[in-house]
Amino acid sequence: MAAETDTGAIEDFGQVSRTVGTVFRYLLLAATMFGIVMLAVLLLYVANDAIRPLTADPGWYLAFFLALVAPTGIAGWAVRRRDPAALTFGTFLVGMLVVSLMFSGGVALLVIDVVPPLVALAFAIGLAVPIGATVGLTRYAHRISFTLRLAATTAVFYLSLFGLPGPIGDAVGAPPIVPSLVALVQSVPVIPVDWMMVAAVVGGGSAAAIGTYVASVGDGSAGLYAAGVALAASAAAGAAGPLVGVDSVPAVVITAVALVPTTAYAWRGGFTEEGSPLGLVFAATVVVGALVGAAAVDVLGFAGPQSWVDWGFLTSAHSGTAENAGLYPAIGGSILLMTTVAALSFPVGVGAAVYLEEYAGDNALTRFVDVNISNLAGVPSVVYGLLGLGVFVTYLGRSAGTVLVGGATLALLILPIVIISAREAIRSVPSDMRQASYGMGATRWQTVKNVVLPEAFPGILTGTILALGRAIGETAPLIMIGAPNVVFNLPTALGSKVSAMPLQVYAWSSLFASEDFYTKAVPAGVVVLLAVLLAMNSVAIVLRNKFERTQ
Amino acid sequence: MTREPERNSRFSRREFLAATGGLGVAGLAGCTQDNPSDGATADPTETGSDGSDSDGSGGDGGSGELSGEISIAGSSTVFPLASAMAERFEERHSGVSTSLQSTGSGGGFANYFCTGQTDFNNASRPIQPEEEEQCAGNDVEPVELKVATDALTVIVNNDNEFLGEGLTVEQLREIWSAESQPETWADVDAEWPDEPFELYGPSDASGTYDYFIESVLGEEGPGHRQDYSPTEQDRTIIQGVSGSEFAMGYLGFAYYSQNQDTVQAVPIKDGEGDYVEPSLDTALSGDYTPLSRPLFTYPKVSALEEEHIAEFARFWIENSTSREIVADEVGYVPLSEDERDEMLGKIDSAVGDSD
Lengths: 551, 355
Description:
heterodimer; A: 1% strand; TAT_signal (chain B); PBP_domain (chain B); transport (chain B); PstS family phosphate ABC transporter substrate-binding protein (chain B); signal (chain B)
């Protein structure tokens, strides 16, 4: 362009060279890749230490190559040529099976070692009954004033969960008059066996979710049938589990949390109108290939890699010898901490985001809050640890290092991130939709409830899961609030001492500093932590993709 | 509009509900169990009689019925020992949930034990008067239990004969201090050969390193010289020293005791005393100074009232004479039988006082 000026002088432009541009481009590429490559090298190193792929027989690799890798490649290529969307669906299906199996492991851990089935059932009933009553009240008696409904709802919940006079009565020393529904259920002399109670609670929850999902795709009655089939499948798994060598309770949980949802997703993707059945072929190839490969190496006697991440590592507690050390209490601790963090930070964070986006006016106070939330997101985690120690332990006098204190501290830590990402999600709801809602005469509350939140929900969920992913890797705040370095059991109450995966890895690398722990337990712990983190992030990414597509 | 399909399917749905309901009832009737929490009222009396039984016999019968939480904090030196004991206790009593935290002796007393948060505080030194005051202010009454002895051993090559009787603490200080940093043996004592030192020791991440500085070089002193071969592996120290006539190193006693043929231990003379050879006996008797120190744990009296905590304290002390756990696994000098009985007596009287 410079050459086209009147004078034709191109002195200012200098020598035109393609080299500069090329060099600049590859420098940028190097900058992009620098961090990723460094991290990848470290992770490969750690994974190699933890899984030790070179210790496997060549036959083991050959068997899995023939049974799993080659057929997957061929099937993937063939499916992609016909229908690329089917390959995506098939890959998602396999991913969903893997991730949901991991989550079912977490749920199984909770029902086996943390919450006794009877307690879970009692609370499920104690919550289901008042929720049912509330729904009925709202649907059939909406002429009753809001205040009256609120009072009635609160009373039903209080009665069901605490009885009369409940905690208020305890405070003034009144004797219990009416036992709560929760206590009533727990005092029944003859109860169903454990797996039936687990089937009712976990299977029931899963069935309700599946029913809603199917109803949203098909119609109401299909949803009802799907829910019934899902519940029946969970219960059947409990009865059939022992026949194939799996305990009833884990069988129920795996079916309810992993198999049933995966099947529902497969049904939707494979057999509904816009479905792509070829994806099922791909997914089946992978699953069958993995099973055949496993059976083949078992029969032929090929030894797999002598990985430190094995069943024993996942299910045993810490030990003084690295070979016997396990991560079980830390895995359970992390799950409980994350549950607490989610329960605390989600409502508060979303509430704050809705207020700031939908209600707050543009004034000095809002701007002040705005700036500070952004700043808080960058405050070092050790400072939050100090805050947790100061507020919860020293000031409020809770005992140090418990699930509640740890969860509350981590919830404070990720609260700004949750608020910021929830605000982003709410902001991305088109204002046309709000205006349309107002135009139909809806109030602001109705607009938020019926338009904004449902539209923004996947985005909010994505942001929260990513924030939880940060919380699950935090070590410093837990050290600050006095979480123990070693525990041997899962915490069974909010007031129990809790360990977490990063904390256990830290303890192994600092307190048990020996070659054995460095090369066995620490890498194995890191691999498990990363696997859990990646599973959580994959859920977030899938939700985000789905969200973007429907936009 | 939405009502229509519901009405059509109502009959079959009712049928379906009836069928599942019937199945459910049949299933419930077939698969029931007695409510364990209902019968729990009978249990405490059983456990109680069992507990008093084991009190008399010394608590050998691991009934597995104990339950509750035990929280332990304190010294990082005692931490591996406490963790080894807790691991074994867990194997017998899976209902007891033990949590261990390494906070350092002082940090444990000030932040956790004396504020009433923890049941045990480990310490690599006796409790200090200020800490006792703080504890008393919060109605926490500590019981001092010695659990092991930590002994450092200075080792040289088997062919080394020029050291003769041994080393004085002053010589040891001169060799390892960052200030003097002698290059050859002759720099320290003219009678020794004019050969360069080959020094092996634990790295600065090790508690042994800290303890060596504390006991030999002095906390306020010039510090540890850095031109030696630091390692986390005690085996490397043994190998290094056994490889050269003019090498020297130091490590925990337990590692030396497993390699008594490979290297020789140097007797140490503290001040005006005699040259004392490191051994289980001299460490126990307190003659081997300044390189031996007792390790403690402090349970609080109010916690010992709880049966599972008293049982754990007894378990720990009973096993603290075990060479397998204390010396071989963790690397400290075990208690003598007399000391064990004395500590058990302290527990019993603490439990008795509180009753």
